[in-house]
Amino acid sequence: MDSVGNIIVYFVIAIAIIFFSFKAVTTRKILRAATYLLFVLIAVAVAYFQMGYQFLGAVQIAVYAGGIMVLFVFAILLTHKPNDKSGNIDSHRRFWGISLSGAAAVLLLLAVFFMPFLNGASLTECLQGSEEITMRQIGEAFTGSNRFQYLLPFEAISVLLLACIIGGVTIARKG
C-alpha cells in the first residue's frame, strides 16, 4: 500500500502536468509554450522517478527535456520572432477545432482500451485481470517489429519530425 505522502506527490505531479499542458496550448507566445512544454516533460520525469523507473526518468530528462527542447527552441528562433503573438481564432474555427479535438480524443480512447496490445489482449481485458502483463512484454511491444508491436510507427514519426525540422531550417534560410 502506498503511503499518503506518495499519493499526495502523485496528485501534485498530475496537477502540474495538466496545468502546464493547458498553458502550453493556450498561450500566444511560442517561446512560452516551449517553456511550458519543458515543465511538462520535467514533471513526467519526476513521475517516472516516483514510480521507481530511474532509467526512464533520466532518459526523459536527457533526451526530451534536454535535447528535444533545445531543437524546438532552436527551430522556433530560426522561424519566428521571439515576441510575435498569434492572432485570435475566430469562433467558427474554434468550434471546428474543439469538435475535431473531442472526436479525436474519443477515437484515441477507444483505440487505447479496445485494440489488441499484447498477445491479442486489449487493455480492458488486462485491467480486468484476465491477462497479466510484465514490463518485459511492454518493452518488447514498443521495440519489436512483429504484429502488435510499435517500432515501425515510432521510426516513421521520428523521420517525419526530422523532415519537419529540416523544412523549418530551409524556410528560415530562404526568408
Short description:
With 175 residues, this protein is mostly helical. Helices cover 76% and strands 3% of the residues.
Description:
The model has no long low-confidence stretch (mean pLDDT 80). Strand 1 (116-118) and strand 2 form a beta hairpin. 76% of the residues lie in helices and 3% in strands. The radius of gyration is 19 Å and the shape is globular. It has a two-stranded antiparallel ribbon. The chain has 175 residues and is mostly helical. The chain has helices at 4-26, 30-51, 54-79, 91-114, 123-127, 135-143, 151-174; strands spanning 116-118, 121-122. It is built from seven helices and two strands, in the order H-H-H-H-E-E-H-H-H.
Average pLDDT metric: 80
The biggest beta sheet is recorded as: 2 strands, antiparallel
- Please report the distance between the alpha carbons of the first and last residues: 58 Å
Describe the global form: globular
Number of helices: 7
Strand content: under 5%
Order of helices and strands: HHHHEEHHH
